Amino acid sequence: xxxxxxxxxKLAEYRQSDFLIPRVALDIALDPHATRVRATLEIEPNPAGxxxxxxxxxxxxxxxxxxxxxxxPLDPQTFTANADGLVIHQPPRRPFTLTVETxxxxxxxxxxxxxxxxxxxxxxxxxxxxxxxxxxxxxxPDVLSIYETRIEADAAEAPTLLGNGNLxxxxxxxDGTRHYALWHDPHPKPTYLFxxxxxxxxxxxxxxxxxxxxxxxxxxxxxxxxxxxxxYALDALERSMRWDEEVFGREYDLDVFNIVAVSDFNMxxxxxxxxxxxxxxxxxxxxxxxxxxxxxxxEAIVAHEYFHNWTGNRITCRDWFQLCLKxxxxxxxxxxxxxDMRSRPVHRIAEVRxxxxxxxxxxxxxxxxxxxxSEYREINNFYTATVYEKGAEVIRMLRTxxxxxxxxxxxxxxxxxxxxxxxxxxxxxACFAEASGRDLEHFALWYAQAGTPxxxxxxxxxxxxxxxxxxxxxSIPPTPGQPTKRPALVPIRLGLVAEDxxxxxxxxxxxxxxxxxxxxxxxxxxxxxxxxxxxxxxxxRGFSAPVRVSRDLSEADLLTLLRHxxxxxxxxxxxxxxxxxxxxxxxxxxTLAEEAVRAYADALAAFLDAEGEADPAFAALVLALPGEPDxxxxxxxxxxxxxxxxxxxxxxxxxxxALAPRLAVLRERLASRAPYAPDAASAGRRALRNGALDLIAxxxxxxxxxxxxxxxxxxxxxxxxxxALGVAAHTPPTPRREEMLADFRSRFDGEPLVLDKWFAxxxxxxxxxxxxxxxxxxxxxxxxxxxxxxxxALIGAFALSNPTQxxxxxxxxxxxxxxxxxxxxxxxxxxxxxxxTAFNTWRTMEPGRRAKAETTLRTIADRPSLSRDVSDIVGxxxx
Length: 879
Ligand code: PHE
Ligand code: ZN
Known about the structure:
The protein is an alpha+beta fold. 41% of the residues lie in helices and 21% in strands.
């Protein structure tokens, strides 16, 4: 039995590998329970490494069968091989060949790391440390090898055999009951990018001609019968490949690019070289089964994984501390792609909403860590919103700071200089320092300091001098291991808006021509000249830095910005700020300022009348009240989720009531007569129409459920059907509501991805009885604890997206989730750890809930055999 003593790895202790493995040949004979892996490794001492040290290859849960060195069986005295590794005590000081055979049971692999089976399909997941569950190796990202992979399988069980790189040969083996495929990947890569797939799969494909005229076959493989749902993913892939050529000058570098959809996958998708493996929820889509959000996610994730081919694969990470080097940069790239494919301002708002919901919450709690962590116990727990989303914001700030041109030059330099290498954040930043001629040392703090900076902005107009003075003050709250912080370098894009809506051209020697002021100390002021009328300042336009801002603006000034700000992000933000203020006050004092709510609703009404139909996607965002977590973050401590919920429901009802006649008209005018299309403009009309329905139902639940039922019955697409069901599910309990839920269940029987929506919808119902409902749903035959999507839809949604019921004052929500986490931990620790992160906000709760949460966490921590994944999370949560 393996001991799971948590060992902390430190960035500062990085050391090069003492050995290199330039080439590897794998010969893998697939079998449901006894897969044979023969690995032939060409090993050599690293000239930069230490001499006379043992060779220690990583292993995890391996069964060694045979070991040979240069073709001779190794003397058992000279090596140790067990489940966790293979050590050769005195390896040759020259290049040598090591041949190792291991045997695996892919059917028994419930962790979904290494080689496993998903609905009969053999597949692999190696990032970050799954390759060591396939064979002994130097399983670290700075050891790059050229791979040749021979895959053999039963021809009937696995007619499709896919590997990294290009197909070299294939054919029958012996009498033809088995067959093989030989794949060669000419690009040196680390272990985590290795992949293979074997199974019965259907394929759609098309040719792609690259910018230099090379022919590539691009393909998507799915469960037979699902081909009709793979077209959008293939289309997104083609658009991604073209976009990366046009925008970043990056060309694809193999003869084939394969995407495979599997049903059991811990994450979204994986960028294995030439063979991306996807969670099928990010591949399969049809109008009847997928929402607009699903389509947008598919487009973004297909692009993300494809973009990794350059940012991640061709240039990889020296060690896992550098994870943001590939992830933050690749998220930035996929966000840019989606912005170009859709509406840039609308996408920006969506990015910021997601950042605040997940990353700001993470940064404010016990799991807070820098974009580049300096230590970890379990790397699986660092695939976080901070590494990904804040990592992308840091890249965006870098671009703002150095400007478009130097940013493009820096990227080109990075691609040229670090190609085929395992790089660091320092290597990356050096390219931009060189391209821009700037010192980026202060900027680099964004990688090292955790916590969301708070920025306070106050302003004063001097009528006599015709100047406007802005005072800025920043501070960064303490985070685990970082009690004190240095001020960050904050690029603040800003402008002045006159009350009549004109932009006042403000000037100052300290304001860049593009409207950016760079704050580089704890406090500073900026005096803008030639300001003839009292302006309303618009700061942090486009959300130019991932900070929390407090402004000294009145609600009337904020509503002026909603009306007139040329920056669409700040228009939306101003309305949100007003609403958050009202909700926070109401949740804390128990009374909603109805007069102020009316002014807010009037402003929304004026906005809708003036331009509701001009950009429906934007209007839908403006109309949506901030979420309960936004309010909880604003309150920050002694949070009572019920008070927040009550305040928000009350405000929704008031706003819905004030806007109802308009919203009804809007719904009529936005109704579509054309067949469903997933493009952003059509999706925007649906979003506004469904947002309107939601507000109408908030004001008048009886009318709401009738309208919802109507839309549900008549819908020709999942977006409208699910939105209607969602509205119904949030009305008070009625037989009609339950009938609709039952109808959905039977209508989509046999459609697991659709039933996930049904699970999640019910798991997030904000009412007493939801926990019991969730417990009931766990017995539904469509539910399974072994599938990460089902777990996420039911247990994950309850824990992470149902604030009032997860945080029930009696602690039953906590106890339920803890129970499921410990059950899951035995089979799939990674998924268990992710669900457990729902406790992240426990310290911000009011004392009663806080005590209950702490007791629950301690109960988990006290269990005897926790995985490293769960023990790391629970340890930091209590630490
Ligand atoms: N590297 C993957 C991505 O961001 C995510 C992933 C991590 C998938 C670990 C599986 C395991 O695209
Ligand atoms: Zn990624």
